[in-house]
Structures are given as C-alpha cells and as structure tokens.
Amino acid sequence: MPSPFDGRFKMVIINWVANPFRGDRLEEEWRPAAEAATRYGAKAWAFIRSTDDPLSFTQVALFDKKMDFDRYWLSDEIAEARARIGGIYQVPLLPTWYESVGLGVVSDQINGANGSEEAA
User: Fold this and answer.
1) Host domain of residue 82
2) What totals of helices (H) and strands (E) does the chain contain, helices first?
C-alpha cells in the first residue's frame, strides 16, 4: 500500500488554542472529530498537543482536494462537534493549506545503505 506521503502532497493545518484550564477537554472532545477527516477523503490525520504549551494544538490532515476538506469541515457532523466544544477554544480558526516539497524518514537512509560495517 502506498504511503500518503509519496511525492508531493497537500495538507491543511489548523492551529487550536484552548481557553485556560480547557486543554484536556479540547483534547478529549476534538480528537474523534479530527480522526473523522478520513471518512471525508483524508489520506492521513494528526491532532498534536504542544508539550511546552499544553493549551496549543495543531490539527493536520492530508487531502487530495480542497473540496474534500470543505465537505469535512462544513459537514453537519463537524459543525456540530465545533458547536459542542464552543467556549473551550479561541476563535477564529483559520485552516491553512500547504504543499509538501520534500519529506524523508530515517528508514529511507537505512534502506539505501548496504548494511555492512566498514573497518576504521
């Protein structure tokens, strides 16, 4: 199965900031909605919480088409999820689109090596 990170890909990033003392609730209540992106065509998703600032979250989703993201973000399911958590995060939320121009992982380097150790 091909990786969602093969070649150039597009992603949407949404920065969330929880209101004071609401970080745990945002994490718990929004995670299922972030994961739901795959039901609307996302190839991958992530909902990331900062360890330095536990009120800061980043939602990432990889979509082939912005229209698929719009179907997700504007769906009754996700609009209702945002309404349920109203008051625990700061607005506005501004989805921002990016395109990958490169990505690598350590296994790429390992797979390219011959695996033998050279004598010093």
Assistant:
1) 10-99
2) 4, 4
